[in-house]
Structures
1.
Amino acid sequence: MSEPLPQPLLSDIDKLNDIEKRIVASFIRRERIARDHRAPPATFGARVADRVASFGGSWPFIFLAVGAIAAWIAFNLTTARPFDPYPYILLNLVLSCTAALQAPVIMMSQNRQSAHDRLAAERDYEVNTKAEIEIVALHTKLDEIREQKWMELIKLQEQQIALLTRMLAREESAHHGPGT
């Protein structure tokens, strides 16, 4: 079905990286490279990390945190026996623990998103590279067709010139025949 590739082309293909080899192979086999690669279902921990990161980096979280801190301070200022008097050591401890737990969870979510983005960028690269190869191949085919049409046109013009030359020779022999 397909003929073997010339040796110089094979040695050039051997110099490519794995992604480029996969792209060339799909081009040669005329396979699609663009596929729907949805992320695999997230684990429970990954879903929790995504939700914590989503909520922890939002305005509602900031407003809620500022409101909770303000309520904490207001309660401790207005109560006769505050459970966390100024300088609010317990509040600092709660905020520090929240930040210490929230930061790695957000990092997990960002790492997962970063891995997903790298995979999407790799897929985009593959699709774009294959599209570039296809465009070059189409240009080559168009150039071959144009060259073929030019050759046909030149051949047709040569035939027309030969026909006109014969017609001109007949015309001249008819006007300058043996009797002239």
Note: The longest helix spans residues 89-175.
2.
Amino acid sequence: MPAIATQETDLSSLLDDGLAAMALPLDTATCGKLLAYVTLLGKWNQVYNLTAIREPARMIGAHILDSLSVVPHLPARGALLDIGSGGGLPGIPIAAARPDLHVTMLDSVQKKTTFVRQAIGELGLTNAEVVNERIEKYQPQQSFNVIISRAYAELADFVAGAAPLLAEGGHMLAMKGVYPHEEIARLPKEFVVNEVCELSVPQIEGKRHLVKVSRA
């Protein structure tokens, strides 16, 4: 078997095993999009430096499964904003896994949004879009019922920037590593932490948590 075919098989097995461990069944077409995204990310990363992780096998756990770990915590439908999306994380995996959500990815770095726009087109994600803008200057036509960030900023800074874009009754979701006791303590009084969920992410080391915040 050619080396490239072996690599594709290995990545597919890593993804399948990870999804099974997370009890998150996805159809073959969706898995194909996720694997194609890893291939695109690896190719563009050689020039654009989109992620410090170079090995596609490590991208499965560190990027794909990590992003998908929040899927059970998302609403049944609506509009989601991914702030500081970078190379499309967690926005692209979420958009692939949840076609019932409209996913907008926001980042101020043009080379990253250029890649995300290309990925959206190649993967055929009709429920996704990308915006090249700073959060404080972003003025969408509609607000979002879910706003998420992954390693974007201090929790207080994230919610302060996201709150003006949040729909009434919506939630902000911050993906963190270890339980962020100190960041939660620094949260302004106009916001409240509704829940902190420990996320189980196969193929990565260290703790992962999801902090759910809303207006007080």
Note: The helical segments are 3-21, 28-48, 56-68, 91-97, 110-123, 155-162, 181-185.
3.
Amino acid sequence: MQSKLPSLLKAFALCSLLVTLSCASVIHAQPRQDPRKQPLVVKLPAMDKVTTQRDLTYKTAEGTALKMDVYYPPDFKEGKLPVVIFVNGVGVMDLKDWQVYVDWGKLTAANGMIAITHQSRNTDAAADVADLINYVRSNAVNLKVDENRLGIWACSANVQVALPLTMNESRKYIRTAVMYYGVMNSQQIRFDVPMLVARAGQDVPFINNTIDAFVARAVAQDFPLTFISYAEGQHAFDILDNTDQTKEIVKQTIDFLKFHLTRDEAATAAKLRAPSPGRFVAMITNDGITKAVQIFEEGKKTDPQAVIYRENVLNAIGYQMLQDSRIREAIEIFKLNVAAYPNSANVYDSLGDAYEANGNKELAIQNAEKTLELLAKDTTLDEAAKAPIRTSATDKLKRLKEQK
């Protein structure tokens, strides 16, 4: 049963989308409409000037030619542009021809990027999406795309294919992603892929529960997430809810994609080498203290200001490790703090606490003595700030020497 769960969820989500689209007009007492003909709620004049290459074959599988449509900005002639791929992860062959996908493609191109929509098979949609990406990158010159600036957009059941593909560490060319109202079960997180996630408050609970869990995990690890919770939005709000709020979300989505696909790569890389405190804790938990410290040190060499945390931040991380009985990790964190702030009495006192917890009395005593030595010479702290540090170090020395 467990092996069938992803495909069942995908089928359920697709059915949910189709039923929602088909029934929305009934709910709102409007004439029933074909969901495949429902337009995007945003329409710009420049969309009518977009150039489209339709039905280009990117793959032949089981005797069937799989096609893609490529949307180019108005008057675009030469050069290379970033590309947004609208993932067909459900294997609906005519999905690229749905009006909403045509409109999203045109809207993306009207904003200066290339957009691609495509066919895929319901028997192996994930492989088809991967092959599409490989084809686009291999034919970047002819398609006039920047093979190293690729964005992913997916909604509903398509997210189950798009999300793990986006989180694949080897796909460094995927620079950003957008996930609308889809099941988000991936446990893997890549910290170099800024993502926009849109949640529809009126959606079915199981979809939103997976989004909520993903967002909570991402926020705890300081993943670069932009989260939109559209409380009044339905599943497929981008075609069903023709409101100012929907239009603003669509505009924000396009701006998000454009910003992250066109920003300076060198500046972005430098920033990403500086893990936030939450992400650093996640590294310790997921990769081990040795690997986390290695990443810390490598980042410090490249951009010292970005990776040297404030003294109190590293101190808090260290005591968090101590509280969780992760004493070895706490020692390494406090050692980093000592290296970063060698003139601070408090960092030595904290390291002494960790050594005491580890049963290393000699090193604990040495650090307590160093604390008192620095405290006596410190002219930056007033007596009120010095007092608790002095008390901690003095009590530690007394306690440890009595145990000898």
Note: The radius of gyration is 27 Å.
